[in-house]
Design brief:
The chain is mainly alpha-helical and 308 residues long. The protein has one domain: ADP-ribosylation/Crystallin J1 (ADP-ribosylglycohydrolase fold). It contains 16 helices and no strands. It is globular, with a radius of gyration of 17 Å. The structure holds ADP-ribosyl-L-arginine (F2R) and magnesium ion (2 copies). The site of one magnesium ion has 6 residues, from helix 2 and helix 14.
């Protein structure tokens, strides 16, 4: 029996682990088969995916709920350019740091805002926090995305990722893989994401090759590619975290981010206890490392209970 707090801890630890395990392979071609016995560095370092998810979690805790101005400020405060940010997000954060309001900055790089995956990769804490209040989830996640990713496709990627997390906390959606896809289809009004969700059903039925998955869903930094790819990998392999990460890397492309999103979902499904201990041991633990993200998960759980 996995307790709800175990799911919260597993979700955010899974995100950080998936990010850190996938990071060395970001940008690689499809088809690489990592050997985790020798391909893992001595210390697993996380990237922008986890740094931004930490900002989301810290803000929800400090504000006792969702406050977009506070969240934007946390992104700016936590920003470490060495963590490998997307160029648009880095530019927006720098504008916020220099005093511009996020509502002005978010359309300065791309006219209609970014449709990169940078808001989906950090959306899991919102899915946890709003898991018993899905009526409020969409509006909050859209606005949280909008701080850096104002484009409708950027927002919808974040909403679907957060909603998938909320389903794992509240419902038995994993009895049948199509069940979760149907729930996501019912939640989205985006034709683009609906088309990808329907392709996911076909790929599952066909037991498709990695090559086909990349061809039909995509593996790039665009939310419309990597969010469906992460959902697919999770649905097919998410009950075995190590195997799932092997598949994330073998898809190539945006491996840290597909890993972070699939990792959050798998960690939520399995709970922290089921995540590979030897990987957790190697995960960095500085000022805002693995202990910090677990603390965020625990505090979000307590707040979530108080609000439900
Ligand atoms: N940035 C990286 N990886 C490269 C550097 C890693 C290297 N190891 C290092 O340490 O230096 N990874 C991270 O970036 C991705 C998230 O990106 P985000 O936050 O979405 O950024 P951005 O710039 O908003 O969007 C990404 C690209 O998508 C295209 N794009 C987005 N919106 C667009 C629009 N409206 N019109 C046209 N193009 C648009 C652009 O090419 C953007 O640069 C994650 O992978 C994270 O891990
Ligand atoms: Mg990254
Ligand atoms: Mg990435």
């Amino acid at each position: 029996m996995i307790t709800p707090v175990e799911r919260f801890r597993g979700c955010l630890m899974g995100l950080m682990l998936g990010d850190a395990i996938g990071a060395p392979f970001e940008g690689c071609r499809q088809g690489i088969e990592p050997d985790f016995q020798k391909d893992l560095p001595a210390v697993l370092r996380y990237t922008d995916d986890s740094e931004m998810a930490i900002g989301v979690g810290e803000s929800l805790i400090a504000s006792d709920g969702f406050d977009p101005d506070d969240m934007a400020m946390r992104f700016a405060e936590n920003y470490n350019p060495l963590r490998g940010y997307g160029s648009g997000t880095a530019a927006i954060i720098n504008m916020i740091k220099s005093g511009m309001h996020w509502k002005e900055a978010n359309t300065k790089v791309f006219k209609n805002g970014s449709f990169g995956n940078g808001s989906a990769m950090r959306a899991a804490p919102l899915g946890l926090f709003f898991s018993h209040r899905t009526g409020q989830l969409r509006a909050a996640v859209e606005e949280a995305s909008s701080i850096t990713h104002h484009h409708v496709l950027g927002k919808e990627g974040a909403v679907l990722l957060a909603y998938a997390v909320s389903l794992l906390v509240t419902q038995e959606v994993m009895k049948d893989r199509n069940h979760m896809i149907d729930a996501l289809l019912g939640f989205t009004s985006s034709d683009e994401y609906s088309a990808k969700l329907l392709i996911m059903k076909e790929l599952i039925k066909e037991e498709a090759s990695g090559e086909q998955v990349v061809l039909r869903l995509g593996n790039t930094v665009l939310a419309l590619e990597s969010v469906p790819a992460a959902l697919y990998v999770f649905l097919v392999y998410g009950s075995d975290f190590k195997k799932m990460m092997q598949v994330c890397i073998s898809l190539g492309g945006d491996t840290d981010t597909i890993g972070a999103m699939a990792g959050a979902l798998s960690g939520c499904l399995l709970g922290e206890q089921a995540l590979p201990g030897e990987w957790i041991q190697k995960l960095e633990n500085g000022e805002k490392g693995k202990d910090h993200i677990v603390e965020i998960a625990e505090r979000l759980f307590l707040m979530h209970q108080a609000h439900s």
